[in-house]
Structures are given as C-alpha cells and as structure tokens.
Specification:
The complex is a heterodimer of chains A (595) and B (158). With 595 residues, chain A is α/β, with parallel strands linked by helices. Chain A is 38% helix and 14% strand. The chains are: A alpha/beta (595), B alpha+beta (158). Bound molecules: flavin mononucleotide, iron/sulfur cluster (3 copies) and FE2/S2 (inorganic) cluster (2 copies).
C-alpha cells in the first residue's frame, strides 16, 4: 500500500561519510515513537548527486529538499514536518533569489539535468529489488526474452546510436554485433567498473544507487550475443558498491532473474564479481581481461579485439557502467526515443562529475550538446569563493583543458576532441586563477608515469622524460628548447605507444601548450609562476601598509621566519621561509602576499 | 617448498575461501585480496602458503603483488590513513594534508609510527570528489578535511 509520505535519505558514499546511516536510524526511531510507521516510510537511497550539500534528506510527495542534515535533526524533521506538516525551514536548501522553499525542481542544480542513467539514484532503495521492479525494473529483460530476437535488440541499439561511455565512444550496437556473429558456444559479458580517472565517480554512484540496472543490462547483452556468463570488474576501493552489487545479485537469483532459466525461459545467465587492485591501466580493456584471468594487467595489441577474442580467448562484450545503465531504458522506450536526445554526433545524456573550484560540486546528468557554460554556471553555480574561471579539464589524464573562450560550445564526443580535449569518462575539473596550469599538467603526467605498465618504451621512457621536463620548468630550470622537445616526444608517444594510456598521456601537455603557452613562458623565461603555486618560483612578503603587527603569523610560522614587535610591521626572512603558506592563511588583514 | 606451511595460520574462513576458489580459473587476485583482508598486508609466509594451496609458483604471486598498487608487502599501521591525491583532492590541497600528517605523526608517507598505530598512504581518487579533499581511515571517509581538523581526527582513533 502506498504511504502518505516517503522520507528518502541519501546512502551514497559521500553522505554516509557524514553520518547518513545514523540519520536514517534516527528517522526510523522517531517515526516509531510518533506512531506513524504505517503512514511514513523511511528509505535509504543512492546518491542524489548533490554531494557537496550532503547529507541529503528528501521528503515526498512534497519534494522538500533538506541539506546538511545531522543525526540530531532527524527527530525534528519527523515531529515537525511529518506529524505537524510544518517544514523545517532552517534545513531547506537556500536557492539563490527565491525564498527558502526548496522543491527539487526549483533548485538550479537540477533544472537543466535530464536523468536516464541516474534515473533511480536517489529515488529507490538500492538494496531492495522490489523498488527497482516497481520502476519498470527487469521489464526490459522480459521484453528481450519473450518479444525480441537478438537482431531486434541490435537494431534498437543501432537506432539509438548509443556510444560507449568509457571514453572511446565506440558504437555499442556494433560491438555487440561482432560478438553475436562469432560462432562459438562460450562467450562472455563484462562490465568495466574500474573507474580509474582520478576525479570521476559516476560509475561508483550508479553502482551504489542502482545496481540492478547493470545486472539487467548485462543479462540483455548475454541473451543478445549468446553469452551465459558475465563478470563485473570493479575497483576494490569501492566497498559500498561491491556490497550493494552482491546484495542485488543475491536478490536477482532469488527472483529467478539471474541464474538458470531466467523468468522460466530457456536462457541461463549468471554474473561473478572480480576485484581490481589499484592499477589504472586495468581499465584498458585488454589489460582488464588479463586481470580477470588473474595475471598482471598488461595491455596487448589489438586486433584481435575482445569482441572476438576476450576473456579466456572467447568472444567478450565489454562495456562501461554508464553504457550499461542506458540499455534497459533504450529497450523499453525505443531507440527512436533515445536518438532524439542529444546532438547529431552523440545521442542521449552524459553524466559529469563536476569538481574542483566550483560552487556546487556533484554529479550532473545532462543531454549531450549542453554547453559548458550551462553546466558550470547554471548547474554548478559558478566558481567558488568569487574567484575567476581559468579553465575546465575534461578527459582526466588523457584529456585537456578548455578555456573561457569556448564555454558556449555544445559538448559532445566530437566537439571536445576538436578542442584538443576529450570526453573521457566524464570528469570535469574546474580550475580558477590560483591553479597553475604547468603544475596541474605535471600532476597528470606524474599520474600517467606512475600508472604506466612499462611494457612498451615510448610510454615508459617518453612519459618519464616529459615529466622530468615539466618538473624542471616548475622549478625555474626550464629552457626555451623544452617546449619543442615536449611536443616532439608527445607526438612520438601518441604514434608509437601500444595502448591508450601511452597514446593519450601527452594530451594534457599538448593541450595546455596550445592554450596557455604564455604561462609556460612565464615559468621558463621570467622564472615566475603567475598563479603563485610553484614553490621554487614564489616568495612570501608582508605589506608594510597593511600589517598591523598582530603577531598572529609569527606565532604560527613553523620555522620562525617572521619577526617583528607587537603593533609593528612584521617581516619575513626569505632564508628561513619554507613557503608553507601558513602566514597567508593566518593573516586576517590581507597583509601577506605571494610573488 | 622451502618454507613449511606451518609458519602462518589462516583462519577457517580464509581456508574455505581459498578452497572454494581453487577450482576457478583466474583466482589469484581474488585470493590475494582475501589474504590482505585478513592480515592487512601479504606476509611472505602467506604468499608461500597460497603458492602451495593454489599450486602456482611463488614468483608468479610476487609478480602479481608487485604489479598492483593495492597489495601491500609491509604491514601498515593499525589505522592506515589514506589521503586522496586524485585530481579533485589535489586541487583542493590534498598534498598539504600529507605534509601536515607527516609533521603530526613524525613519519613519512608509507611509514608506520613506532607504536604501530598509524601509517600514511597516498591513494588515487576514492570516488568522493564532491567532498574533496578526502581522507579515508579503514572504511571511514572524512570529507572536506582541513589541516586544523587533523589532530582531532587522529585523536579519534586513539
Ligand atoms: C588507460 C585506459 C584506462 C581506461 N579506463 C577505463 C575505465 O576506468 N572504465 C571504463 O569503462 N573504460 C576505461 N577505458 C576504456 C576501455 O578500454 C574500453 O574502451 C571501455 O571499457 C569500453 O566500454 P564502452 O564501449 O562502453 O565505453 C580505459 C582505456 C584506457 C586506454
Ligand atoms: S602504452 Fe604504457 S601502459 Fe600501455 S602498454 Fe605501453 S607501457 Fe603499458
Ligand atoms: S610561508 Fe610558512 S615558513 Fe614562510 S614565512 Fe610564511 S609561515 Fe613562515
Ligand atoms: S598576521 Fe598579518 S597583520 Fe598580523 S603580524 Fe602577520 S602580517 Fe601583520
Ligand atoms: S553521496 Fe549523498 S548526494 Fe552524493
Ligand atoms: S579526487 Fe579525491 S575523491 Fe576523487
């Protein structure tokens, strides 16, 4: 029986880390105490995407959106809102301009979003299969089993023009048809949940918030391509997602939705979880296969592609979590419906992880073709702390930066590539005036060097040389010839590396050299870091006309570099200063500055 | 085998896990995860014992352990403080947290305090980028961490 009200508590990792579980339990206790358990149901859901403001509690049907809730607030939410009908206004999200009357649709963060992949995240209890089923869950697999032939499924995906969300954007229908067309009795379906791009977490949230959608989609692929086994390859760093997947698999087996003779048909399919172990390169599909087989995760040359020779050398369909999450919706609503969303080049939606110097960081799902400006300013609320936008980085260690001039570009696979970046998995990292482009680029190169498997020399040696050059530049030891050298090495790596890691590792350099050459030149020629980040190139000073001699900085300085009498101007001894920045943080009078 | 099986004891749960997985192809990484779950790292004697139980060469086991960052050859502190050094956390000062922790605990990254209580580790994105900078202790995630909070966080584990 439907309840009068539902109280949804976010159970995503972000909110769980700030006591969401205690909030959930306190809400339940309060309902029991008030004797309203028959009318009000408390549900723990997946991530709402608005992690920045967590923990989140949402009340239905009035769509009230409470943010930054504490366990102590739980009782008040129940006694005031759910018993007396009075909203707890101090917890409501403060939407700019309007009063504190936060209905979810009024919140800018959600207005431009369109949810296909995250349709159930923050809506259902991911540990309860009935809630998934109540929202058309497993209806797609039923349709595929009893109303569609494998070719029908492929046709529908072809109409949808769905492209892989793991980075490369390969047409999903084509990949499936390769595997389907191989004559072989043993085939496999694999879900790539390695999510290695540091700064992207859409796969994690999808698995935590809607695990059944992945199981259903993999089963559909199994039926379509003729596979009876699947693997989910997931990072060991995601314990909550692993736990929810295990629960979901158990429930699906009990309901006859996984295992022998699914829904009484002649089709049998089951899934096993395999854990990654902290190697970024294992997200690359051939390395991933090696890792499933229990080996060191080294890529191998393609062809043969996994679609033809995959796990145990058998034909294998590998898709990314987000790709999978689209499948059941396409089956139910049709490829034509799906292909109306998005741009000519890219259909459907994309989930982005908006992070860095943005006001509202979180997960956003928007139609392909949404502009960066809409994502960063309308949804993300602009740059945090009133700073100036500098660039947005997409595609992680394989991608590049996009500057303010291009904020109105509608984004899809094609436009991002033509701007010298790429879609990647959907990390979107916002940088402001305080972020040094050379330093961030060095960070990405450092990542790629550390994660290179070392199998081929262009990547192993080239990556290291690029990193060393960047390191020298950030220390003020760069030379003009370095710019040409980096371009040459980068282009060679792109051509000669064996796998995508080495082929794309130079992208952050090539892209930033293109848009921010002057910043490189400032480091190389003027020995200056314009953003004030690179320690070797900056020095700390105290402005005589601003310092009131409060002594705060001198007391905190770890090396005793600051001297001065009370109420007298202080000064910093450059020989003792280790550039830790504590004085800058400490001074309340803006007297400390960096040069 | 040079080292006798008797030098280390596996819990019954670990033994039965290994026996269950023994027949499955590609089991090595899954078994090593379980071993690390039990000991907090992979002791030499445990690697020996796994080699015997799964009938794979020890060299292969070490090949796998050293390839994957997640596996540890040294025993971490009772509370291993993992500081996220992914992009989002890096931009928000994750590396400053490492510096501060090193100072507070008097150890370097990847070292253990003398009493065996704490160790510091730098990790890649833990998937809570919305809360950057993030650190993880055991299964507990701390988000939007500032340097000032670190002494309190450390104290909460003693
Ligand atoms: C170095 C490297 C890392 C990758 N990491 C991931 C990853 O973490 N997750 C993912 O889904 N795909 C990743 N990919 C892409 C996969 O190789 C593969 O293209 C993808 O899983 C295919 O699924 P899709 O067609 O659904 O995108 C990576 C590729 C490279 C070269
Ligand atoms: S490009 Fe790099 S990661 Fe890829 S196979 Fe070569 S060395 Fe390994
Ligand atoms: S930057 Fe650090 S070391 Fe230098 S003067 Fe300021 S507080 Fe002292
Ligand atoms: S904290 Fe600022 S105002 Fe106070 S002594 Fe230091 S520089 Fe001067
Ligand atoms: S984890 Fe709660 S909103 Fe993302
Ligand atoms: S970058 Fe630190 S949690 Fe993602």
């Amino acid at each position: 029986m439907p309840k009068r009200n539902y109280v949804l508590v976010c159970g995503g990792t972000g909110c769980e880390s700030s006591k969401a579980d205690q909030i959930f339990r306190n809400l339940k206790i309060a309902c029991t105490e008030q004797g309203i358990t028959d009318e009000v149901q408390v549900v723990k859901t997946g991530c709402f995407g608005f992690c920045e403001q967590g923990p989140i509690v949402k009340v239905l049907p009035d769509e009230t959106f409470y943010v930054k809730v504490t366990p102590e607030d739980a009782e008040e939410i129940i006694t005031e809102h759910l018993v007396k009908g009075r909203k707890v206004s101090r917890l409501e999200y403060d939407t700019k301009g309007s009063t504190k009357n936060a209905k979810v649709d009024d919140i800018q963060f959600y207005q431009k979003q369109f949810r296909i992949v995250l349709r159930n995240c923050g809506v259902i209890d991911p540990e309860n299969i009935d809630e998934y089923i109540a929202r058309d869950g497993y209806a797609a697999v039923e349709k595929v089993l009893f109303e569609m032939s494998p070719d029908d499924v492929i046709q529908e995906l072809k109409k949808a023009q769905l492209r892989g969300r793991g980075g490369a954007g390969f047409p999903t229908w084509l990949k499936w048809s390769f595997t389907k067309d191989v004559e072989e009795s043993e085939k496999y379906v694999v879900c790539n949940a390695d999510e290695g791009d540091p700064g992207a977490y859409m796969d994690r949230s999808t698995l935590e918030g809607d695990p059944h959608s992945i199981l259903e989609a993999m089963t559909i692929a199994g039926r379509t391509c003729g596979a009876s086994r699947g693997y989910i390859y997931i990072r060991a760093e995601y314990p909550l997602a692993i736990k929810r997947l295990k629960i979901a698999m158990q429930q699906a087996r009990e309901y006859g939705l996984l295992g022998d003779n699914i829904l009484g048909s002649d089709f049998s399919f089951d899934i096993e979880i395999r854990l990654g172990a902290g190697a970024f390169v294992c997200g690359e599909e051939t390395a991933l296969l090696a890792s499933i087989e229990g080996e060191r995760g080294m890529p191998r040359p393609r062809p043969p592609f996994p679609a033809v020779k995959g796990v145990w050398n058998k034909p294998t369909v590998i898709n990314n979590v987000e790709t999978w999450a689209n499948i059941p919706v396409i089956i139910l609503k049709g490829g034509d419906w799906f292909s109306k969303i998005g741009t000519e080049d890219s259909k459907g939606t994309k989930v982005f992880a908006l992070t860095g110097k943005i006001s509202n960081s979180g997960l956003v799902e928007v139609p392909m073709g949404t502009t960066l400006r809409e994502i960063i300013y309308d949804i993300g609320g602009g740059i945090a702390n009133g700073k100036k936008f500098k660039a947005v980085q997409t595609g992680g260690p394989s991608g590049g930066v996009i500057t303010a001039d291009y904020l109105d570009t509608p984004i899809d696979y094609g436009t991002l590539t033509s701007l010298g970046s790429m879609m990647g998995s959907g990390g979107m990292i916002i940088m402001d005036e305080d972020d040094c482009i050379v330093d961030v680029t060095k960070f990405y190169l450092g990542f790629s060097v550390e994660e290179s498997c070392g199998k081929c020399s262009p990547c192993r040696i080239g990556g290291r040389s690029l990193y060393n050059i960047l390191d020298r530049i950030t220390k003020g030891e760069g030379e003009m010839a370095d710019i040409g050298k980096m371009k040459d090495i980068g282009l060679a790596m792109k051509k000669a590396s064996l796998c995508g890691l080495g082929q794309t590792a130079p992208n952050p350099i090539l892209s930033t050299l293109n848009y921010f050459e002057d910043e490189y030149l400032a480091h190389i020629k003027d020995k200056r870091c314009p953003a004030g980040t690179c320690k070797e190139l900056i020095s700390f000073h105290i402005l005589a006309d601003k310092c009131i001699g409060c002594t705060a900085c001198a007391r905190k300085c770890p090396t005793g570099a600051i001297t001065g009498e009370r109420r007298q101007v202080h000064r910093i001894d450059p020989d003792l200063c280790i550039k830790c920045g504590v004085c800058l943080e400490t001074c309340k009078f803006d007297a400390v500055f960096v040069r | 085998m040079a080292v006798a099986d008797g030098t280390i004891t596996f819990s019954p749960a670990l033994n039965s896990f290994i026996n269950e997985w023994k027949v499955k192809p590609g089991n090595l990484i899954m078994v090593l995860h379980k071993v690390q779950e039990e000991f907090g790292y992979i002791p030499r004697a445990a690697a020996d014992k796994v080699a015997g139980m799964l009938e794979v060469p020890l060299a292969k086991i070490y090949g796998v352990i050293t390839f994957y960052h997640f596996f540890k050859l040294e025993k971490p502190g009772k509370y291993n403080i993992q500081v996220c050094l992914g992009t989002a956390c890096y931009l928000k000062g994750g590396s400053n947290l490492v510096d501060e922790l090193q100072g507070l605990l008097g150890i370097s990254i990847n070292e253990v305090t003398k009493d065996g209580k704490f160790s510091i580790e730098g990790v890649r994105c833990v998937g809570c980028c919305g809360l950057a900078p993030v650190l993880v202790v055991g299964e507990e995630v701390h988000g939007k961490v500032t340097k000032d909070q670190l002494p309190g966080i450390i104290a909460s584990y003693t």
